[in-house]
Amino acid sequence: MSFGCTGHDRGFKNESIRDIKYTEITVDTLDIRLPNTSFGGHSGVQGDRIYFLDKYFGHLYLMDVNGKVNDRKMGLGRAANEIPIKSSLAAAVKNDDLLVFGGTYDAYVFKNFGKRKKIDILVSPQKKSLEDSRAYTSFSEIVRINNRDEFFYNIYSEAEFANPAEHDKKYFRDAHILMKVDLKTGHARPVGKYSSYYVENYANIKHLFGIVYDIDKEDNFYVSYQTDSLIYMYDENFRILRAFGFEGKNMDKAYGRARYGWENFNKTYKEDIETKGYYYWLEHIDATGHSFRSYRKGQNSGYDGLQIYRDGILVGDVEVPKQFKVCGYIPPYYVTQIICDEEKESLKLYRFKLEER
Prior knowledge:
Blueprint lengths: L16 E6 L4 E5 L9 E6 L2 E6 L4 E5 L5 E6 L15 E5 L2 E5 L4 E5 L5 E5 L15 E10 L4 E8 L10 H7 L3 E5 L5 E4 L4 H10 L5 E5 L5 E5 L5 E4 L5 E5 L17 H14 L2 E8 L4 E7 L7 E7 L2 E8 L5 E5 L2 E4 L2 E3 L4 E7 L5
Parallel strand pairs: 1-22
Antiparallel strand pairs: 2-26, 3-4, 4-5, 5-6, 7-8, 8-9, 9-10, 11-12, 12-13, 13-14, 15-16, 16-17, 17-18, 19-20, 20-21, 21-22, 23-24, 24-26, 25-26
């Protein structure tokens, strides 16, 4: 099967293969207890540690695979080793360096979890086209750091000349999906494009324009679009390398059709994001070669779905609890992000092993 003739996947073939080895997984639930927390934050895995950054209090907790806290660093404030952002949008840890992103062109790096360095993000001065960084707004709680001292965050445009609600055809043909920021210079430019699936089907899915992505140790991108069944692998310059994937089990994809204008767009988005099926997380584990993609089935399911790929081959599609986002591997466990419930004042994470049956 060949893709369409537009987008960065031009003329590339679908390499999708199934070889199911996992029909279910046994999930452990760990309640995380922290001495001082707002019950809201960002988490992930770095090396053999799980980290949790409290988005309001600014404390960085480091814990083992059993959820035991071994260290607490930083905090909210103006001191050299504190976080000056009152409510961080996203965070990531790489090689014991913490990146904290505020979402309004403010970002900080804490080398070895110590003294901070402000990143002055330099966007283009005007927003005349979708090639200008100022044409875009940041959204989503995903930031990723590569091996070239660059970080990326999700973007979309509300520009009058091109946006998904009012100029949809032009938008999905020309718009970028990520902002790339040089950690040394602060220079920012938009990168990546929508798949040909979106270019060809935008009228029915334009309100579900989000993407999830990861970056591997070779700086290749793994990208999953919100309603596209394929996972696309791009190199560091967003040239297509391969594509693979299958639609998740029992996904309700009877999406509403958003009429012209932002009011209709936002209304349809809210209805479908609460009731329909879509892909919401993607993580590639360098150590094992597995890629995990999480998806909602729809409002009639009490579970979410988790697809497991190995070198592009689908080896499992299993039911998992809601909000299940695999974020790392600490042998012998795969570990999810910490799920925050501010209303119930609870924090929990899941872990599991992959065992063939």
